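Let's sit down with a protein and look at its sequence and fold side by side. Which protein we use is up to you, so please pick one and set it down. Label the sequence line and the structure token line clearly, so we can match residues to local backbone shapes. Go ahead whenever you are ready, and we will take it from there:

***
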Amino acid sequence: MTFRERVFPPLPVFVLLCLLAGSFGLILVPLSTTVAALVGTTIAVLAGLVQYLTAPVLEVEDGWFRAGTARIEGHFLGEVEVLDRAGMRTAMGTGADLRAYTVYRDHTSTGIRVALVDERDPAPYWLVSSRNAPALAEALSGISGR
């Protein structure tokens, strides 16, 4: 089973950040409205581009799991646990293991914790934010064989 998700900020946050960045063009209105509009639009587009490019990609394909910049083969994956809002809060707070690999986005309230069975890997588990955690967990269970 394949799975792919890019963990974007919610649309209102995305638009607000673009508008906030674009508002820096207002500083230039006394000089020239044309320059102000050009600078504001350019900064807003760049802010949107940065949000897009820095949004982590979660992908399960061909026996591999990719979360952000890290990849791991499916046979190194152990138990997969779907976490709700409270579970993610605990996993990132009092229940956190500092050795864990995390792909966390505060604007995404659900996610998964997947244990690792590779003795050579110092990370005991991966903690990954996902808007579609049940589907991600199902895809990971398919490649891990557990």
Summary: The chain has two domains: 7-54, 59-144. The first helix runs from residue 11 to 22. Strands lie at 3-6, 57-61, 64-67, 70-73, 77-83, 101-103, 111-116, 125-129. The mean pLDDT is 92.
